[in-house]
Amino acid sequence: MEKILVGLKRVVDFNVRVRVKSDGSGVETDGVKMSINPFDEIALEEALRIRERGEASEVIAVSIGSSEAQQQLRTGLAMGADRAILVTTDSAIDQLTVARVFLALVNREKPDLVLLGKQAIDNDNNQTGQMLAALWERPQATFASTVELSGSTAKVTREVDAGLETIEIDLPGVVTTDLRLNEPRYVKLPDIMKAKKKPLDQVSLEELGVQPAQGLREISWEAPPQRSKGVVVNDVAELVAALKEKGLV
Amino acid sequence: MSKILIIAEHDGASINPSTAKCVACASGLPDAEVDVAIFSNEGSTLAAAAASMSSVRKVLKVDQPVNEHLLAAILAPQVAAMAGDYSHIFGPSTTFGKDLMPRVAALLGVNQVSDIMSIEGSHRFKRPVYAGNAVLTVEAPSDQPVVATIRTASYQAVGNEGSAQVEEFSLDASIPDHTRFVELSAGKSDRPDLQTASTVVSGGRALGGAENFDIIYKLADALGAAVGASRAAVDAGYVPNEMQVGQTGKIIAPDLYIAIGISGAIQHLTGIKDAGTIVAINKDAEAPIFEIADIGLVGDLFTIVPELAEALQK
User: Fold this and answer.
1) Dihedral, B186, B187, B190, B196 alpha carbons, nearest 10
2) What pLDDT digit, counting tens, does each position of B114-143 carry?
3) Which of A100, A139, A146, B19 is the most exposed place for a label (fewest CB within 10 A)?
4) In chain A, % of residues over pLDDT 90
5) What pTM was computed for the model?
6) B 263-282 → A contacts, CB under 8 A
7) Does A91 touch chain B (CB under 8 A)?
8) Cα dist. A84→A8, A110, A197, B284 in Å?
9) ipTM at complex level
C-alpha cells in the first residue's frame, strides 16, 4: 500500500490529574503538560510498523487545532512519520466536523488506511473513526488489538465486551486502536533533530472547504461526586461481619 | 413529546441487559414513547423478550441474513433508514453501541452525545469526560435528532411487565459488502456476567501470575460472583481482555465490588465508582484504592483471600 494517514490529537497528558475550574467553565489547562493522545500514539506506532515491514511507503501524521499542536506533530515526526499536516483552527471543533476534515484530507491524499485512536482521553467521545468511515462510505474496524494486512484487505481483531472479534475489511478503510495493539517506541534525541527537517504543512479549515457541523453546546462543567473513605477492618472475621451487617453476604 | 428508538444489543440468542438499561434512561425523557429495534437473522425470540420490557411501546424487527452478526457498517444504514421522525436514537455505551452509534450519527449528519449518565431535559444531558474526572452538561441542537450512547452503569434495567406489539419493519437501505465477520473468540464461563452481576471480585497485578488467579475464582464461587481484573493484570496476561474493569474496559455497578491486589489507578476507579459497596484488600496501606473503599483490609492477599472464601462458604 502507498499511504497511511494517522490522526494525532493534542490532549492533557494522561498523568495529569485533571481538575474542574471553580467557575465551572472547563478544566484547568494552564501550565499543564500536553501530549499526543495515547491511543493516537498507538495508531502512529502501528502505521510505522506496517511501513517498516515494507507494507506501506508513507506515513502522514495529521492534527487539527491551534499552532501549538505542531509540538505533537513534531513528536510524531520524531517517532518516524514521513510528513505532517496541521489543519489550523482557533476554536474547538466538534467530532462531526473533525470527521469532515479527515474526509477532506482523505480525498486529497488518497490513503489506503486511516489509523486513529479509538478515543481521545479528554472528551472521551469515541466517535471520529466511525464517523469518518460513514462519511467516506468505507469499512471501519474499531478497538483493534491486531491488524493483519494482505493485499487489498485487512483482518482486524477487535476488543469487544464478549472477547475478541475478528473481522475482515476491504481497503481503503478506517482502523481505530485499542490499548493492546502495540507499545509505542520512545523518541530518541537524534530523531528529534531529524524531525525538524521533515515537512509540516499547514492548511486552514476554510482552505480545505470544510463546512462546520452544529456541535453540542457545553453548558457547564462540574467535579464528579466523590466517594468517601470508609472503614478499615483488622481481619477477615471483621470483614465478614461488616459485609453481613450490610446484608451483602 | 420525545419519540425514542433504541437499538437492541443481542448475541442472536438473547438480548443484552444493556438494552433494558437504555429503555430505563429513555423513559426519563419528557413524554417518552419508547420503541426498540431488533436487527437479526431470526429474531422472534429476541423481539418477544424486548416486547416484555416495561415502558416499551413497540418493537420493530428487521430480519435478514446480513444481520446475523451485528457489524456497524451493515447496521448503520438500516438504523438511518429507520430513523424517520424519531427525536432520539439511543444505543448502549458498550463496544456494540460505541461502534455503531457514531456511524449512525454521521449518516444522519449530527454529532453524537456519548455516555449519557443523566437526563437534564429533552436535549440536555450529563456525561463523564476526562476518564470520569469531570462531568460535562451538554445540549444537543433541538432541531436535529439526538443520537446517543447510554452509560449503562448509571441505570437500572426496566422490569418485564410490558406487552408491546411486535412489528416486522421493512426498510430500504443499501447494505455494503466491504465488511465481513470472521470469528468471535469468547471466554466460556459458568460464572455470572461481569457487566450485570450483583457481586464482582477483581484481581490485580499483585496476584503475580495467571495460576494465582485461582484464589480469586474460588472466592468468586463462594460468593456467586463474577470475576474481573485490573488493566495491569490483563496487560500482564493473567486473564483475557474481556475481564478488564475500568475506563478502557468494562464500567460496572455491582452491589458489592471486592478489589484484591489492585492499587486503584484512576482509570480503574472510573469503572467502579457506581458500585454499592467497595471492599479493598491490599498489602499497601497507602494504595489509592483505600481512599474510595467502603471497607478496607490491609494485608497479604494470599492469606486473606483463601481465609475469606472459607469463611463465606460456611
Assistant:
1) -70
2) 999 999 999 999 999 999 899 999 999 999
3) A146
4) 94
5) 0.95
6) 266, 273, 276-279
7) no
8) 10, 15, 11, 45
9) 0.96
